[in-house]
Amino acid sequence: MTATESPVNGSNCFVCGKHNPHGMQIEFRLDGDRCVAEYTPPEHFCGFDGVTHGGILFSLLDDVMANWLYLRGESAYTGKCEIRYREPAATGVNYLLEAEQLSRKGRVAQMAGRILHPDDRRVIAEAQATFMVIGSRADA
Questions:
Q1: Cα Rg of the chain (Å, integer)
Q2: Which end of the chain is more exposed for a tag (fewer CB within 10 A), N or C?
């Protein structure tokens, strides 16, 4: 069975899976045209002391964009993603996550995501990605 033929179940996802005891267990939600969430990176997710590892930031951005589709009943895989880190993200700060769909052509969705500082909504990191929609979710 290939990845596109297998049933899609995100319950063990490192970022949002509710059944992953080692994951972040972030609860994404829809807010109008955006998918949003909040997350406070713990110290053990650092690269340099006190600074969140860039791979964690990438994971947050990838998942907030994917959940924009998922919460609307579609399963998708990331095809391509470009990220821009604008400033270091301190651990222990409750960052705001948001994503939106930029465009859609058939199964190809162009998405944008941002990590925002909670005090002034300045952009900490941002990404644009192409997602390949593989179908509708039965549990949507």
A1: 15
A2: N
Cβ-Cβ contacts under 8 Å for 42 (sequence gap 6 or more): 91, 92
- Calculate the alpha carbon distances from 85 to 23, 57, 82, 105, 124 in Å: 23, 9, 10, 28, 6
Other C-beta atoms closer than 10 Å to the C-beta of 109 total: 22
Domain positions in the chain are 30-136
- Give the other-Cβ count within 10 Å of 54's Cβ: 14
Task: Name the residue type at position 84.
Answer: R
Q: Residue 89 carries which DSSP code?
A: -
**Mean model confidence pLDDT for the chain:** 90
Q: Is 118 in contact with 89 (CB distance < 8 Å)?
A: no
Query: Which sign, positive or negative, has the C-alpha torsion 53, 29, 62, 24?
Result: positive
> pLDDT, tens digit, for every residue of 94-122?
999 999 999 999 999 999 999 999 999 99
Question: 30-136 is classed in which CATH architecture?
Answer: Roll (3.10)
